[in-house]
Specification:
By secondary structure, this protein is an alpha+beta fold. The chain has three helices and four strands. A hairpin with a 7-residue loop joins strand 2 and strand 3.
C-alpha cells in the first residue's frame, strides 16, 4: 500500500533534518539529501505501520503547496508499507542430518541467515 505525505526538509550547517507536519513526532535526519530522503521514507513507513497496527486513524495528507519553507524546502515523501509489514521474527523448529549440522557449526554458519536466503531464493524463483 503506497502512501504519500508532504515533508519539510531543513538544512542546518551541512546536514538535513525532515519533519512531517501532518504526523506529530515523525521526523528524522541525514547527512545528504539522498540519505535524508531514504531515512524519511523509513520513518514514514514505521510511523504509519505503528498507527495501523494500533487501529488508529491516519491523518489526511496536507496539500504540499500550503507549506512555505525559509530554511529548506518541502517535498512529497512516498513509502510502500508492504515492504515493512510483518517483519517481526518467527521461531521455526527444523530437522537436519547431524553430519550437516556438525559441518555447518564448524564453519560458523548462521543458520537463520542461510534459511532466510534460501527461502527468499525459492520464493523469487516461483
Amino acid at each position: 500500500m503506497l502512501f504519500v505525505y508532504p515533508a519539510i526538509f531543513h538544512k542546518e550547517k551541512e546536514e538535513f533534518w525532515v519533519e512531517f507536519p501532518d504526523l506529530e513526532g515523525c521526523h528524522t535526519y541525514g547527512s545528504s539529501i539522498s540519505e535524508t530522503m531514504e531515512a524519511a521514507q523509513e520513518a514514514l513507513a514505521s510511523y504509519l505501520l505503528t498507527l495501523l497496527e494500533q487501529n488508529k486513524t491516519l491523518a489526511t495528507p496536507s496539500n504540499i503547496s500550503d507549506f512555505h519553507v525559509e530554511d529548506g524546502f518541502s517535498s512529497l515523501v512516498t513509502c510502500d508499507i508492504n515492504q515493512y509489514k510483518d517483519t517481526k521474527a518467527v521461531k521455526k523448529t527444523l530437522t537436519i542430518p547431524a553430519w550437516l549440522n556438525d559441518r555447518a557449526m564448524s564453519m560458523g554458519v548462521n543458520f537463520s541467515q542461510v534459511l532466510q536466503e534460501a527461502l527468499l531464493s525459492k520464493i523469487q524463483s516461483l
